[in-house]
C-alpha cells in the first residue's frame, strides 16, 4: 500500500498496486458496456481508497453524458442520477476538452454541476469519445502527480475495454446481418435459377426454343438481384442528390425497367416527390417486382399520391383531390400479406425473411434513409398496399446495412 498526504496533511490518499493490477485486467474480459462500467466502479474503493466513484457514457443522439455505474457510497450520497450536458458542469468541460482535471477544493469552482454538492475533492478522467470517470472524496484532498498518473492508467484500461466491446458488438451485428443476407440472397437466386434450369431442360427434351424466353426472364431476375447487391456494397442506401420529380414520371420510367411481363399499371394522379431519383427507382422497381412475384404476371398495380392525413387517395389521373399531398402509395390485387406478417415484411433492422427476399428490405432501408415512414396494409382489391409518407426522421446521407 502506497500512502500520499495533502500539502497540509489534511487527507491521506492511498492506492493499492495489487488491487490496481487485478481490477484493470477484469474489464477486458467483459462482454458489454454495462459490465465494464460496473467492474470499473467496483474497483475504485480498493484501488484508490476513496468512497466516491461514477462513470458516465456519452450518448451522441442526446448529446449528453449519462450515468452508467457508480460506487455504493456514491449511490447513498446522491439520491438521483446526474446527467451532464454542454456547459453545465466541470465534467462536461473535461470530456469535451479530453483533459484530466483535479480539484482539491470544489467549493471554489463556480462552474460545477451542483454548487451544494457534498463532494469536496475529485479527479475527472475523460475516456475519449466514450465518457468520463469521476473519483472523489467528501473531504478536502490534494492529488499529487503519482496519483494522477495511476488514475490516468486506470482510465486508459477502462477506455480500451469499452473500445474492445464496441468493436466486438459491431462485428456481431455485421456477422448476423451478413448471415441474414446470405439466407435471403440464396432464396432469391435459387428461384429464378430453378426456372432457368427447368426451361433449358425442356428445350433439350422438346427442341421448343420458346422456353428460352422464360429462361431469359430468370437470368434477368438474377442480374437484377446482383445489381442490388452491388449497389449495397458500393453505396449502401445513400441519399445523395435529392431533386423534385413528378410521381407519374418516375413511375412510368421505372415500370418499363421492372420487367413485369403482363402486369397492368394504373397511375391514379401525380404529385411532386423530393428525393434521390436513383434510390426512388429502386423503391418502385422492387415494389413492382414484389407485386409480380406474389400476385402473378397479370397483376394490376395502382400508384398514386396520398392526400391529407393519408386516408384519402385520388381515384383517377383526372381528379384533383383536396388537401396537402403527404406521400404516395403502391397497391396491387394480389393475395395480400397475412396479418401476422405485416409488422415483419418492412423491418429496417433485419431482413424480412425468406418469403419476401431482399427487395422489400431495400425498400424499407431507402425510405428510412430519406426520413420517410413506410407501412403496409390491405389494398382495396384485397392485395398489398404500401404507403410512403413524410416522416419526422432526419435524412441519412448514408444508411449502413
TrEMBL record:
Name the record gives this protein: histidine kinase
Domain Histidine kinase span(s) in chain numbering: 184-394
A family per Pfam: GAF_2
InterPro entries: GAF, GAF-like_dom_sf, HATPase_C_sf, HATPase_dom, His_kinase_dom, HisK_dim/P_dom, HisK_dim/P_sf, Sensor_HK_Regulatory
Keyword Iron-sulfur appears in the UniProt entry: no
Enzyme class: transferase
Molecular function GO terms recorded: phosphorelay sensor kinase activity
Catalytic activity: ATP + protein L-histidine = ADP + protein N-phospho-L-histidine
Organism of derivation: Haloarcula quadrata
Matching CDD domains: HATPase, HisKA
UniProt KW Ion transport keyword: no
Keywords, comma-separated and alphabetical: Kinase, Transferase, Two-component regulatory system
EC number: 2.7.13.3
Amino acid at each position: 500500500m502506497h500512502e500520499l498526504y495533502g500539502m497540509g496533511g489534511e487527507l491521506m490518499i492511498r492506492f493499492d498496486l495489487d488491487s490496481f493490477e487485478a481490477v484493470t485486467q477484469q474489464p477486458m474480459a467483459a462482454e458489454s458496456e454495462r459490465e465494464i462500467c460496473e467492474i470499473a466502479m467496483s474497483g475504485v474503493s480498493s484501488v484508490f481508497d476513496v468512497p466516491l466513484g461514477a462513470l458516465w457514457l456519452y450518448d451522441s443522439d442526446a448529446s449528453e453524458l449519462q450515468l452508467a455505474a457508480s460506487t455504493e457510497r456514491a449511490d447513498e450520497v446522491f439520491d438521483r442520477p446526474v446527467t451532464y450536458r454542454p456547459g453545465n458542469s466541470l465534467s462536461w468541460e473535461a470530456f469535451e476538452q479530453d483533459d484530466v482535471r483535479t480539484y482539491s477544493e470544489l467549493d471554489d469552482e463556480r462552474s460545477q454541476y451542483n454548487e451544494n454538492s457534498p463532494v469536496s475533492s475529485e479527479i475527472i478522467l475523460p475516456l475519449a469519445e466514450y465518457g468520463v470517470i469521476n473519483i472523489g472524496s467528501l473531504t478536502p484532498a490534494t492529488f499529487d502527480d503519482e496519483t494522477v498518473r495511476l488514475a490516468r492508467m486506470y482510465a486508459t484500461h477502462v477506455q480500451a475495454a469499452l473500445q474492445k466491446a464496441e468493436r466486438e458488438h459491431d462485428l456481431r451485428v455485421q456477422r448476423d446481418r451478413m448471415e441474414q443476407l446470405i439466407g435471403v440472397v440464396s432464396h432469391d437466386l435459387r428461384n429464378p435459377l430453378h426456372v432457368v434450369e427447368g426451361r433449358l431442360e425442356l428445350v433439350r427434351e422438346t427442341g421448343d426454343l420458346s422456353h428460352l424466353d422464360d429462361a431469359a426472364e430468370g437470368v434477368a431476375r438474377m442480374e437484377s438481384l446482383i445489381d442490388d447487391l452491388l449497389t449495397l456494397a458500393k453505396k449502401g442506401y445513400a441519399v445523395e442528390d435529392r431533386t423534385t420529380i413528378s410521381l407519374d414520371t418516375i413511375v412510368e420510367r421505372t415500370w418499363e425497367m421492372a420487367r413485369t411481363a403482363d402486369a397492368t399499371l394504373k397511375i391514379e394522379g401525380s404529385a411532386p416527390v423530393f428525393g434521390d431519383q436513383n434510390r426512388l427507382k429502386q423503391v418502385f422497381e422492387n415494389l413492382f417486382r414484389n407485386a409480380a412475384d406474389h400476385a402473378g404476371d397479370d397483376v394490376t398495380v395502382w400508384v398514386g399520391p396520398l392526400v391529407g392525413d393519408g386516408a384519402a387517395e385520388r381515384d383517377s389521373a383526372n381528379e384533383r383531390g383536396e388537401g396537402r399531398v403527404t406521400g404516395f402509395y403502391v397497391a396491387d390485387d394480389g393475395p395480400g400479406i397475412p396479418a401476422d406478417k405485416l409488422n415483419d415484411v418492412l423491418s429496417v433492422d433485419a431482413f424480412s425473411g425468406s418469403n419476401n427476399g431482399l427487395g422489400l428490405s431495400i425498400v424499407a432501408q431507402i425510405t428510412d434513409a430519406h426520413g420517410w415512414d413506410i407501412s403496409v396494409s390491405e389494398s382495396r382489391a384485397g392485395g398489398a398496399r404500401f404507403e410512403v409518407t413524410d416522416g419526422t426522421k432526419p435524412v441519412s446521407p448514408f444508411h449502413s446495412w
